[in-house]
Amino acid sequence: MKLKPFFAAAVLGLSAALAGCAGGPAQIFTSNYGTVTDAGYQLPSVPITKIPRQYHRQIISYETDEKPGTIIVDTREKFLYLVMENGKAMRYGIGVGREGFEWSGTARVAMKREWPTWTPPAPMIKRQPELAKWRGGMPPGLSNPLGARALYLFNKGGDTGYRLHGTPEWHSIGKAMSSGCIRLLNQDIIDLYNRTQIGAKVVVKG
Known about the structure:
Blueprint: H1 5-21, E1 27-28, E2 36-38, E3 41-43, E4 58-61, E5 71-74, E6 79-83, E7 88-93, E8 96-97, E9 105-114, H2 122-127, E10 149-155, E11 158-167, E12 176-178, E13 182-185, H3 186-195, E14 201-205
Parallel strand pairs: 5-14, 8-12, 11-13
Antiparallel strand pairs: 1-4, 2-3, 4-7, 5-6, 6-7, 9-10, 9-14, 10-11
C-alpha cells in the first residue's frame, strides 16, 4: 500500500523519535578516519570497520555535574568523554593501561603539544633496555608512540607522567595494553586537541 505524503512523513518522524529514545548517538563520525596530512606528515587511514562501532567518535547524550570542557575518562568502559553544552558529550574510544599500570584521579591539562617528542621514563627503560637509545627523546613522527598530539596531565604534585595522546596502533583501542597513558586514534586526538583548552579538568575513573 502506498502511503500518502503526510502520513509517510509522520511515520518517519515517529521512527526518528523512537530512535532518539533508544539512546542512539546524535552524530557518529565513522567517515572521519581517512588519510590526514598534518604538519608535513601523512597519517594513514584507519581501517575503522575493524574497530567496534561503539569506539567510533560520536556525540551522545551524557548527564554529568561537570562543566562543559571537562574530560572524563572511563577506563573500564574504554571511553573518553568531552563534556559539551546541553547534556551532550563527544565520546571517543580509547586504549588504557594494562594490569599494574592503571591510574585514576583528577588532573588538569597543563600543556598541549603537536607531534610531540617521546621520552621513555626510567622504569620503562629498565623493563625494556632497547629503549635506552631514546633516553634523550624520540623525535616526532608516524612511529612515535605519542602520535600526532599529546595532552600533558598535571595535578597538585606536578607532572603525573600520564598523557592523553595519539597512537598508530589502532588495534589497541578498546583494550588495556598501554603503560598507563590514555591513547586515542590519531584522528581522534587531533579532534580532542582542537576542542580542549589549557587548564581543562580531567577526571580519570578506575
